[in-house]
Design a protein that fits this description.
This protein is mainly beta and about 150 residues long. The chain has two domains: about 45 residues, no CATH class; about 100 residues, no CATH class. The protein contains one helix and ten strands; from the N terminus they run E-H-E-E-E-E-E-E-E-E-E. It is globular and about 45 Å long.
Length: about 150
């Protein structure tokens, strides 16, 4: 599951590292905050390729688009080891784009990975960066590398 959490930045409080050392050791939660989230939601990281309807909390309605990456369990060396998920909270949709080019045959998955993606304002294509892989621009369908960015 992927958990998206929104906080009111005006209410966030600082903390010292010593406050949370034991907390993370004893908790399965991966978020620590002294204040409660304004809103949150979850969705499956295993959704199949395509566009899916998703009910977003009202607090996310002003977000037009948010791109993120998720690891995928590849059953063979040719299967995508990662997917780009594009959230469209204002429209109540999300799109799953398996990265067919990023697989165990071509990359050392675990030693290399896609770190972030965004949409190019001019071409409207998804561009991204990775750890131990160069920047890239995806094809119109968002699943293949159209060009490498240097």
């Amino acid at each position: 599951m992927i958990r998206m959490v929104a906080f009111d930045p005006e209410k966030l409080q600082s903390f010292v590292f010593e406050e949370i050392v034991g907390w993370f050791k004893n908790s399965t939660d991966r978020i620590y905050s002294k204040v409660e989230p304004v809103s949150e939601f979850e969705f499956s990281s295993e959704l199949p390729e395509g566009t899916h309807e998703l009910a977003f909390p009202a607090e996310f309605a002003s977000v037009e688009e948010l791109g993120l990456t998720v690891a995928r369990k590849a059953m063979s060396d040719e299967d995508p080891a990662c997917a780009v998920i594009v959230l469209y909270p204002h429209a109540g949709l999300l799109q799953v784009l398996p990265q067919t080019w990023f697989n165990n045959r071509e990359y050392e998955v675990g030693k290399q990975w896609i770190t972030r993606v965004t949409r190019d304002a001019v071409t409207h294509r998804i561009i991204g960066e990775g750890f131990r892989i160069p920047g890239f621009c995806l094809t119109e369908d968002g699943k293949h590398v159209a060009s490498w960015l240097t």
